[in-house]
C-alpha cells in the first residue's frame, strides 16, 4: 500500500467508522463463492446497496466495459457462484 493510500484510508476512517469504512472500500466478494445467486446478491447489496447486480449464466457473453456501479455474479448450471464477484 502506498503512503498516499494509507493517508487516504486514515483520513476517511474517522469519517466513516469501522463497518461503514469496510463497505465503502469493498470491491470484491470472495466469501459468496459457492452460494446461490440470490444469497450472493443479498450479501453484495448489504455492502453496496446502490450497486446494480447482474447475474451471468454459464456460457453467456458480457461486455468488456468497466462500470463502477455494477457487480457481476457468474454462476454455474446449478445457480451457484463460480468466482468472486467484483465491481466493474
UniProtKB/TrEMBL annotation:
One of its GO terms (molecular function) is serine-type endopeptidase inhibitor activity. InterPro entries: Prot_inh_pot1, Prot_inh_pot1_sf. The keyword Ubl conjugation does not apply. It comes from the Eukaryota. Signal peptide: none annotated. Keywords: Protease inhibitor, Serine protease inhibitor. Residues 1-23 are annotated as: Disordered. Pfam families: potato_inhibit. SUPFAM superfamilies: CI-2 family of serine protease inhibitors. GO terms for biological process: response to wounding. Belongs to the protease inhibitor I13 (potato type I serine protease inhibitor) family. This is (wild Malaysian banana) hypothetical protein. The lineage of its organism: Eukaryota, Viridiplantae, Streptophyta, Embryophyta, Tracheophyta.
